[in-house]
């Protein structure tokens, strides 16, 4: 194996979830690409920091000051879904069920991994809400954090931080999924299913 090929494999293994075998397969696949595709790919990679930035409003990926969601006049700016990561935002967008805007925290509270509240975009969320309150009192903050220990901790922390702002705070419904068995459900899922029963 050539040194340059090994170096390409090493770079690919820096991507999350990519091990040496998968990186080798990806690098081999790239050898099959037409030269024009490789040129475009390398140009995108070399300019990624310059061409792709974060939205000044919600911290989603953007190509200018604001992302396409925050720029859209069709979105309801008074409904803000607070998510942990950009990939969570993308998952919600795919449903087509939400017409509001988002706020990406940049993670969840996890002291063991050094993810503390001050490292997340919580202060920016509070500032954003205060600005919006000057225009309208009818604001809903939807806490769409993940239904795990860190997501729950983050949601509870946010609920406490948002209380003084007197905005409507809701959470995504949680509970048992269709076809699930109570026997195998964890305590958090069962308690959420009981709390959100209809």
Features:
198 residues; 9 helices; 2 domains; two-stranded antiparallel ribbon; four-stranded parallel sheet; Dna Topoisomerase Vi A Subunit, Chain: A, domain 2; alpha/beta; globular; 13% strand; Helicase, Ruva Protein, domain 3
The domain tally reads 2
The helix tally amounts to 9
Strand residue percentage: 5-15%
Oligomer: single chain
CATH topology of the largest domain: Dna Topoisomerase Vi A Subunit, Chain: A, domain 2
Structural class: alpha/beta
Please tell me the overall pLDDT.
90
Helix and strand topology:
Elements: H1 3-12, H2 20-31, H3 35-46, H4 48-51, E1 53-54, E2 61-62, H5 68-71, E3 76-83, H6 86-95, E4 100-104, H7 122-133, E5 140-143, H8 149-162, E6 168-171, H9 187-195
Helix pairs in contact: 1-2
Brief overview, please?
This protein is an alpha/beta fold and 198 residues long.
Protein described:
This protein has nine helices and six strands; from the N terminus they run ααααββαβαβαβαβα. With 198 residues, it is of the alpha/beta class. It is globular. The N and C termini lie far apart (61 Å). The mean pLDDT is 90.
